[in-house]
Amino acid sequence: MTQVSIPFSTKNGPHLEALRARHVADTYDEYREEGPVSTVDHTPSESAPDAQKWADVQASDDFVELKRRLLKFVFPVSGLFLAWYLLYVLLADYAHGFMSTKVLGNINVGLIFGLLQFVSTFVITTLYVRHANKNLDPLAEKLRNEIEGDGK
Amino acid sequence: MNESSPILNISIFGVFVIATLIVVIRASRNTKTAADYLAAGRAFTGPQNGIAIAGDYLSAASFLGIAGAIALNGYDGFLYSIGFLVAWLIALLLVAELLRNTGKYTMGDVLSFRMRQRPVRAAAATSTMAVSFFYLLAQMAGAGGLVALLLGITGTGGQALVIAVVGALMIAYVLIGGMKGTTWVQIIKAVLLIAGAGIMTVWVLGKYGFNLSSLLGAAVDAAPKAGEKLLGPGLQYGKTGTSKLDFLSLALALVLGTAGLPHILMRFYTVPTAKEARRSVVWAIWLIGIFYLFTLVLGYGAGALVGPDKINAAPGKANSAAPLLALELGGPILLGLIAAVAFATILAVVAGLTITASASFAHDIYANIIKKGQAEDKDSEVKVARITAIVIGLVSIGGGIIANGQNIAFLVALAFAVAASANLPTILYSLFWKRFNTSGALWSIYGGLFVTITLIILSPAVSGTPTSMFKNADFDLFPLSNPGIVSIPVAFLLGYIGTILSKDKADPAKQAEMEVRSLTGAGAEKAIAH
């Protein structure tokens, strides 16, 4: 089984204590009672320095760039495949004659378009994985290490 | 011609049950904490989870329902599978990784992250249970029809007994194995299902010289009533303007529903990182896509080799197309194997749904609302999850007996409509819209849920036509059986209006935390070492 070990470093900034305590608590239940018990209205890791830390990261150049790279890919591509799917559905729904036009033996336009939906799904999946591995993961990892490691 | 042999079918199924129970018991030995029980210790790999997702997703409706729909309605059945597949891109691009990074066990974790916890969790749990319940009903109803065909049990009492046995087995899986055991059942079942469908596909194609065109021609020849229309769209949905609109509505719910199905979302918590969540979706997309290509061949194959008249005359009607094709190809043994796989499918999906609904109750309602977060990750959370699983199991046995004979694909389509209307808008808004607030979340969840269910109750699927649930009543004020075309935009709109009308401000600190965590994976729940 794969495991991700919890990074323990001795150089903890004070604002990271809460975050670290949370990881430990999730792994070893009993520690939770000693740690800060979360309030009703918010998920854990709620303390002033922490909140500042998240806001700082959110405003950092690296994070802005990561967000831009993600959204620049996923929003247009989502729009594109939804439009292509909708076009296909509308054709199948309202253009029976066109979709039933035979192209090769008994294989008609509708079947080819349908199979092309499969192809486009597989292609987009592959492209996204490539984009994420190359352009998103390294930056996300860098930021994650900054936040979880000894910070800036 | 070969005959179905109930004893053989039961024996093969029995072997599956015993084998999976052994796996479940072995897998459960390390199950101690809530993260073990509800998220399998987050220790599955991407490929393992991807196979399990395929197992969760390729329900009886996909296998029996789509193959049957293609056999009888030709191209229109194929349209279902395309919507089901393309939908995964939304999960891949917009939801899976961000959700894995911000949540813990349930959809409610993500939706309530930066909102007021108690009201939003209550809403998320409500819609989780609603979707899971519709989906459960579909599976249990399918079990009845399948049993009629495979075991030769045609009496309602006998079918009810078998539904009860399925329910009892499912409760056992969930109680003993938790998420880990359930995941292994899904993996075993997915491998069997995809392999079985693959073998049959090659077999069918082999009979036609691996020429798809000849297969299609044979299907047309075997269906004198439908004829050439079998190959083009419109046979089922193209009759009137209303039915065309109904199809458009269905297509929307299919493509937008998947990424809002709680039992699929919950699977992303069983892997250690967002990257593994991405890998699982990629595996799932390939497996599901290939499987749907198989069903295309199987559907037309059943039409060509078994013929629509024989399928319509069989006890399970359209749902029996795939099993009858197996009988035609490989005799009673292949039928027994395919029947066992189909049964295993129902069992595994039902177990996955049950653990999702019970996790939502235990984690969102019990630990975070009733116990105000104090019971989170305690033993009592697991205990409540187990008790809830028993209750849900019993309710779904009852519901399955009542819903026996309803159309499986239709019930699943309803689950997708609720997921697309109540869940997806709220998930997307909370991940991507900074201003989204508690009031917007409540409006989109409850509003989406209310509009969808109201439209379903007022639809011809429930009353007013000979095929309705209540044939003699007549309150079908809404003309479409599928509410998605209205309910999905309305839910998005309600989320927007609820947000801007409220004095409630979004919490910028929590928004910053959520956004940074969702994109970077900082502070995400880690895998558990044993």
Q: Which terms would index this structure?
A:
heterodimer, A: about 150 residues, mainly alpha, 2 domains, 5 helices, 2 strands, about 5% strand, disordered N terminus, B: about 525 residues, Sodium/glucose cotransporter, 19 helices, DUF485 (chain A), transmembrane helix (chain A), transmembrane (chain A)
Describe the structure.
The complex is a heterodimer of chains A (152) and B (530). In chain A, 66% of the residues lie in helices and 3% in strands. Chain A is mostly helical and 152 residues long. Chain A has 2 domains: 43 residues, no CATH class; 89 residues. Chain A has a two-stranded antiparallel sheet. In chain A, strand 1 and strand 2 form a beta hairpin. Chain A is elongated and about 65 Å long. Chain B has a single domain, classed as Up-down Bundle (Sodium/glucose cotransporter), CATH 1.20.1730.10. The relative contact order of chain B is 0.19. The model of chain B has no long low-confidence stretch (mean pLDDT 88). Chains A and B meet through helix 1, helix 2, helix 3, strand 2 and helix 5 of A and helix 5, helix 9, helix 10, helix 12 and helix 19 of B.
